[in-house]
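sorry for the late reply, my laptop died twice this morning and i had to redo everyting from scratch. anyway the thing you sent over, i finally got around to it. pasting the sequence first so we're on the same page, its 64 residues, then the predicted structure underneath. double check i copied it right bc i was rushing
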Amino acid sequence: MAKDTTKRIRITQTKSVIGAPADQRATVRALGIKRMNHTVEQDDNPVIRGMVFKVKHLVRVEDA
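ok and here's the structure:
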């Protein structure tokens, strides 16, 4: 079997989406984050990086 070598990043919501524009709230949900301090792991690719860039003031990103 082939070993999975895809790089992953860990994304944690650090600030509330209350008062944020609807497109930013939708981006946080599309990343799979459901609530404050919720952490998800996603593949490190340009699509996910673009989503994180859009909401960088609401989330913390680290290598998984």
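Residues 8-63 form a domain with the Ribosomal Protein L30; Chain: A, fold (CATH 3.30.1390.20).
thats about all i looked at so far, will dig more tmrw
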